[in-house]
């Protein structure tokens, strides 16, 4: 398989995973969270409703932001917001990582194969 | 619904410990930047970028591991197998940083803690297991499957052990004893590690069948050379 085709297929697959399959992911607390919740009771929303546990020490996130918790608050539908957040995230990470790695690769050697950008 | 995932939120580990691990993370990432420069070729960049996007997407997919408990891919083993240890650490670091800064997943104060656990410890532990297995066993598809599976389990447990160490050094709050936390964390992460192993082994073997030259761990050679050889044919 050619590299360009592999990258294209892989990108599409990542978009499907982040933008669609992720909607069906388990919403139960994960390994670390469940251990830190031991001793606490949680309500139907998963919020702590009583008891004493490590997770109560956790502060509000320092930034939060429009994409907090893999959703988009301004989008009415939670499903659509979650899907869009996943797609934005995948494209953003793809762009950021590719850009950073390109800088790294450029720094190598004395620009033997420099291409204009 | 809080989505904390495997990521440590702020406030769980004290500030001094968080700062020390922030420094350790910065040094480790710096070393990986320098080392990556020597192996990274521009032609390999799109694939490294793709692998990073993949790890980000995969981390969103929480799978159930027990009643009311889920787990998700860490990605250290996938990064180590495909990209090697140096670039692999950078790959997972980018993911963890984006999650903390844009998706409120993992505290910003806890970024150093999370980078050390998930990027540095998990990736290097996985790479060590893969290299060892490929050295000791014949280089067959079965060996690769086993090596990547074992590396995934070890990497997740090693990352969890990193959290236990951080919790022992700077854990806030008397709610749980260290012994309880250690036992609970390690046992649940065995299950998560098995899930990670199944997914990662399937992914790496699929890439290895399609394009073995793109699996860093298979050649143990420089990514640049192997890719050049393939593309100039």
Short descriptors:
heterodimer; A: 117 residues; mainly alpha; two-stranded antiparallel sheet; 3 helices; 45% helix; B: 233 residues; Arp2/3 complex 21 kDa subunit ARPC3; two-stranded antiparallel ribbon; 9 helices; globular; disordered N terminus; disordered C terminus
Average pLDDT, all residues of chain A: 86
The count of domains of chain B is 1
Counting copies of identical and different chains, the oligomeric state is: heterodimer
The 3D shape of chain B can be described as globular
Integer average pLDDT of chain B: 88
The helix content of chain B is: over 70%
Low-confidence stretches of chain A: 110-117
The largest beta-sheet of chain A arranges its strands as 1-2
Rounded to the nearest angstrom, the radius of gyration of chain B is 17 Å
Tell me the helix content of chain A: 40-55%
Give a written overview of the molecule.
Chain A has one domain (3-107). Chain A is 45% helix and 6% strand. Chain A is built from three helices and two strands; from the N terminus they run ααββα. Chain A has helices at 3-19, 31-36, 78-107; strands at 40-42, 48-51. A two-stranded antiparallel ribbon of chain A has the order 1-2. In chain A, β1 (40-42) and β2 form a beta hairpin. Chain B has one domain: Arp2/3 complex 21 kDa subunit ARPC3 (Orthogonal Bundle), CATH 1.10.1760.20. Helices cover 72% and strands 3% of the residues of chain B. Chain B contains nine helices and two strands, in the order ααββααααααα. In chain B, α2 (45-59) packs antiparallel against α3 and α2 (45-59) packs across α4 (85-102). Mean pLDDT of chain B is 88; it is low at 1-5 and 220-233. At the A-B interface, α1, α2 and α3 of A face α1, α2, β1, β2 and α4 of B.
């Amino acid at each position: 398989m050619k590299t360009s085709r592999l990258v294209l297929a892989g990108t599409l697959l990542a978009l499907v995973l982040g933008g669609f399959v992720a909607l069906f992911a388990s919403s139960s607390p994960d390994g670390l969270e469940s251990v830190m919740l031991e001793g606490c009771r949680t309500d139907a929303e998963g919020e702590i409703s009583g008891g004493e546990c490590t997770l109560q020490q956790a502060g509000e996130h320092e930034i939060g932001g429009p994409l907090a918790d893999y959703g988009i608050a301004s989008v009415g539908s939670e499903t659509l917001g979650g899907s869009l957040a996943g797609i934005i995230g995948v494209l953003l990470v793809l762009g950021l990582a590719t850009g950073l790695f390109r800088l790294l690769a450029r720094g190598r050697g004395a620009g033997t194969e420099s291409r204009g950008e | 619904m809080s989505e904390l995932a495997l990521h440590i939120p702020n406030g769980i580990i004290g500030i001094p410990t968080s700062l020390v691990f922030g420094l350790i993370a910065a040094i480790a990432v710096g070393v990986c930047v320098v080392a990556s420069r020597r192996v990274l070729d521009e032609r390999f960049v799109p694939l490294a970028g793709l692998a990073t996007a993949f790890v980000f997407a995969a981390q969103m997919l929480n799978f159930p591991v027990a009643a009311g408990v889920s787990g998700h891919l860490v990605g250290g083993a996938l990064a180590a197998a495909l990209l090697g240890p140096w670039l692999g650490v950078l790959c997972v670091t980018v993911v963890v940083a984006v999650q903390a800064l844009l998706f409120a997943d993992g505290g910003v104060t806890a970024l150093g803690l999370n980078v050390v656990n998930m990027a540095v410890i998990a990736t290097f532990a996985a790479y060590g297991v893969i290299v060892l297995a490929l050295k000791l066993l014949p280089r067959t598809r079965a060996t690769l499957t086993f090596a990547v599976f074992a590396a995934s389990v070890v990497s997740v447990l090693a990352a969890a052990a990193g959290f236990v160490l951080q919790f022992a050094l700077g854990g806030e709050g008397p709610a749980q004893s260290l012994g309880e936390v250690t036992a609970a964390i390690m046992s649940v992460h065995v299950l998560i590690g098995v899930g990670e192993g199944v997914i990662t082994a399937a992914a790496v073997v699929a890439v290895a069948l399609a394009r073995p030259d793109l699996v860093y761990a298979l050649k143990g050679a420089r990514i640049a050379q192997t890719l050049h050889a393939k593309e100039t044919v």
